[in-house]
Amino acid sequence: MKKENFIIVGITMIIVTISVSLAYFAAKIIGTPKDIDLAMKDLYVEFTDNTAELNASGITPGWTYEKTFTIENKSESEYKYNIIIKDLVNTFVTNNLQYKITNTSSNGGYSMSEFENITKSETKKKKTLAYNVSISSGVKQVYKLELRYLDSDEQNGDMGKKFSGKLFITEGTEEPVTLFSQILKDNPTRSTRDTYDSVFTSDTTGTLFTATEKNVHNTTDTTVYYYAGNTTKNWVKFAGYYWRIIRTNADGSIRMLYSGTSHDTTSGYLSTPAINFEFNTSYNSPKYVGYMYGKNDDTLVNARTNTNNSTIKTVIDNWYASNMTSYTKYLSTTAVYCNDRTEQTAGKYNTGSTTFYYAPYARAFTNYTPTYDCTEASDAFSVDNISAKLTYPIALMTSDEIMRAGGKGGTTLTSPYAWYYLNSANGSITGSTWWWLLSPSAWYSSSAHVFIVLGSNNPGYLNYFNTTNSNGVRPTISLKSCVKYSSGDGTAENPYTINLDPDISC
């Protein structure tokens, strides 16, 4: 059939309007079914909504809802369609609100094996749920749409929130390749690391390591992928800068480390307005290990109230405001950057002369057990976390991420080194300059200490220093999970690039 005889312009068939909000009342379903037929030349596809409109103004934890709709191809040819939610708004804070679509007629349509989270959005956007689904001539496909709100302890933040949108179909299109899927394809080998009590510098090109993460936005263990050792295929060119991929995040976004304006640089850190910066301008209180911190420091709770910006956060925010705001739409607001201020031994926090250590110190120097978890709300910095709210979606790498990548506390890397230390010329990407991490280390000799990574004098050495020391700054950002792959194979000479789609809708 010729293209001109198969025009789908105007086929935005509204099947159901969905509007739900969370409150402690019973759900109501009101409205009437809607039947819509379309006939155009030799194309005749019928879309039928078999159940009523959903307008639930008071759903409760444990709430579920089901509806059915059909798609029937009465034309003489195969037809392909996308299932879309148009004007999607989802202001729910948690991932407790989920959906699943199943083809109950078992005749070649689309089916999901598990429930998935509904994309969050404060403003109306289009979300494609299924791409390029085939329906043969004469076939009727019957679908069941299921919605549920999980019965969990994490629900208070959802009070009064809303999900709404219009479910319909459009002409079929191939699913775009995301950067996430391209990374998985280009690195087919999967591995795990069981021990972290020595540096790891093996050639790992083509390998992704797996771990798990849970945080305030993703409260159950989620599989994530990370790069370790001397990999050479985790380069990205984005916003005019080079970055190296650290890992994926629990929300599916891709975390990257700033690596300068050229891949063979020896100054892969922020260089304006100055080369080196303090983490904080003061060191004489344990609160100064905070990326943000409280006015008072008499208790750890008060030190974590996050009312003041650290010096380094101000530097990073100012750089972002001058260089990156036009790229914000591509960055995740739910990726968590963990400023873990948990005590190594509970109850040791003090503002006097007694030394105490934070949990990241124990993981780096004592038990060698790095983690991506960040469940303490006041330490889990993200744009969407009101308890530790970032101004912009940018922060710093953690000591745990350095350990996963191949570093070890108090130990110099050996040749051929690990990727976080290297430029494309196999030398130090920061020269002799040390650079800050986000992880607190200790209240030591009445001064606040934070983790750092050393430069060429001690390659990749993971250590800590007081907060008033001047070191380099290598920010981290996280590309959204849905950003589309454009080109590249991840090498320094041919880095990954993404499609800068101004209408990105995730």
Report on this model:
The chain has 506 residues and is mainly β. 8% of the residues lie in helices and 34% in strands. It is built from 5 helices and 31 strands.
Q: Shape, please?
A: globular
Distance between the termini: 34 Å
The secondary structure category is: mainly beta
Q: What oligomeric arrangement do these chains adopt?
A: single chain
Number of strands: 31
Radius of gyration: 25 Å
Tally of helical segments: 5
Helix content: under 10%
Secondary-structure topology with pairs:
Layout: E1 16-22, E2 35-40, E3 43-49, E4 54-59, E5 64-73, E6 79-90, E7 97-103, E8 116-117, E9 121-135, E10 140-149, E11 162-171, H1 179-186, E12 189-191, E13 207-213, E14 222-226, E15 235-238, E16 241-248, E17 254-258, E18 277-278, E19 292-293, H2 300-303, E20 308-309, H3 311-323, E21 337-338, E22 356-357, H4 359-365, E23 380-381, E24 395-396, H5 399-405, E25 435-444, E26 447-453, E27 462-466, E28 470-471, E29 475-479, E30 485-487, E31 497-498
Parallel strand pairs: 1-4, 12-13
Antiparallel strand pairs: 1-11, 2-3, 3-5, 5-10, 6-9, 6-11, 7-8, 7-10, 13-14, 15-16, 16-17, 17-29, 18-28, 19-20, 21-23, 22-25, 24-29, 25-26, 26-27, 30-31
Put the structure in a nutshell.
This protein is mainly β.
Features:
mainly beta; 5-stranded mixed sheet; 6-stranded antiparallel sheet
